[in-house]
C-alpha cells in the first residue's frame, strides 16, 4: 500500500468534509444540514431527512489509516500512516483500496486526509436530567452537603427539568455524536417525584435517534429502599430497560444487604443485568463489593452481568487485600465503569485490566446539579486515562484510546493493523489528527461521525 507522510495537526484545523455528487446522487448532502445551524459543530436534524444522504453504499476518499509503528533503537517513536479510499456498504466496511483507486461510480465523501478511528462509547451518562441546552446554571455549593442533601435538592429540581428532559436528552445525543460517540449506556431516574416520566421521555428521545443505540439503567437515585421504588423499578423492567441500577446501599438505604438483595432480586426476576452506583469509600463500601461478589457466585445467572460504577472503595485498598478483591471481580466477570476521577483517591484501573476485568468509562454528566465540567468527549477521557496511568510516549498514548472505544484499536501492540477490515461495523469517526496518539494527547477535533455507516455528524464547512 502507498504511504504518504503524516500531515501536521495544523494542516487539519478548520478542514471540513464534503459530499461530492457522483452521478448526481448527492446534490445537497451534509454541508447544508451542518451550515443551517449557528454552531460550528452541528448535528443532522432528524426532522429534515431530505438533507441526509440515503445511500447504503458509498465511498470515503482520502482517509488516513494507521499502518504500523516507527521504531528507533527498539523504541516506538512514531506511527506510520497511509491514505486510502474506503467503501461502506449496508453499515459495514466493504473494501479498502489505495487512495485514488476506489470505485469512482459511488457517491463519495472527501475526508481530506483526516484520520479514521473507531467511534467512541459513553458507558456511564445521565441523559435524562441535565442543564445542557438550557440557560447557564452552576451547581449549588457542595461543601458540607451529604448525598441525602443532594437527593433533597434533586427532588426540587426534577419537576423543573421534566418538561424539557426529552429535548435536552436529544441535545446531549447531538453533542455526543459531535464528539465521536455512537453508543451509550444511560442511567435514568426512577423515583417517586418523576415516577416513570423520566424513562418515558428518554425512550422517546432515543426513538427519534435510531443511529444512537443506548442501553438504559433504571436508576433509583433517591434510594431503592429509602424511596420505596421497588414496584416502579419492576415496571421499568416491563418497559424494556436493560439494567437494574442501585445506589450506595449503606449511606442511602441504611441496610446494605437488604438493599443489594432487593436490587439483585429484580435482576433475577426479569433476567436483566445490574449496574450499581457505589460511591462509598468507608469499610461499608468494601463490604458491599464483597457482598456483591459473593451474591453473584451464588447466582450463576448473574455472572458476567454486573457493572460496578465508580466503585471508589477499591481505591482505598492496597496489597493483597486489593489483589483478592480484584480476583473476585474477575472470577465473577464484573465490569467496572469509571469516570477516571482525579483527587485524593486513584482508582486501580491498570490492576483491574491486568486481571481481565473489563473497564469502561463515561462522562457521567455534561452539566447538571452535580457537576458543570463535562464536555461529552470520550477522547478527553482517554487523555485523562493516559495522564493518570499510561504515560506520554507514542505507544502508551495509542493504547489509551482503547478505554473509550470498547478496546478497539487500529494497531495491535506489535504494530499490525487490525482495524478497519472488511466486515467491521462502520461506527467510526474522522479526526483532525495525524495518528491516534496525537488524537488522545491533543483531544483533536472530530471532523465527522458515522454510526453503523450512517453519517450522524459533520463539521460545518467554513
Task: Please explain how this structure is put together.
α6 (230-238) packs parallel to α7. The model is unreliable at 1-53 (pLDDT under 50). The protein has 462 residues and is of the alpha/beta class. The two termini are 33 Å apart. The protein has two domains: 9-119 and 410-459, Urease, subunit C, domain 1; 121-373, Metal-dependent hydrolases (TIM Barrel, Alpha-Beta Barrel). It has an eight-stranded parallel β-sheet. A five-stranded mixed β-sheet has the order 1-6-3-4-5. It has 13 helices and 18 strands.
Can you list the strand order of the major beta sheet? 8-9-10-11-12-13-14-15
Number of helices: 13
Please report the distance between the alpha carbons of the first and last residues. 33 Å
Per the principal axes of the C-alpha atoms, what is the gross shape? globular
| Cα-atom radius of gyration | 23 Å
Assign the structural class, choosing from mainly alpha, mainly beta, alpha/beta, alpha+beta, or little secondary structure.
alpha/beta
Low-pLDDT parts are: 1-53
How much is the average pLDDT? 89
Beta-strand fraction estimate: 15-25%
Instruction: Identify the CATH architecture of the largest domain.
Output: Alpha-Beta Barrel
DSSP strand count: 18
CATH fourth-tier homologous superfamily of the largest domain: Metal-dependent hydrolases
The residue fraction in helices comes out at: 25-40%
CATH class of the largest domain: Alpha Beta
Largest sheet, in brief, is: 8 strands, parallel
CATH third-tier fold name of the largest domain: TIM Barrel
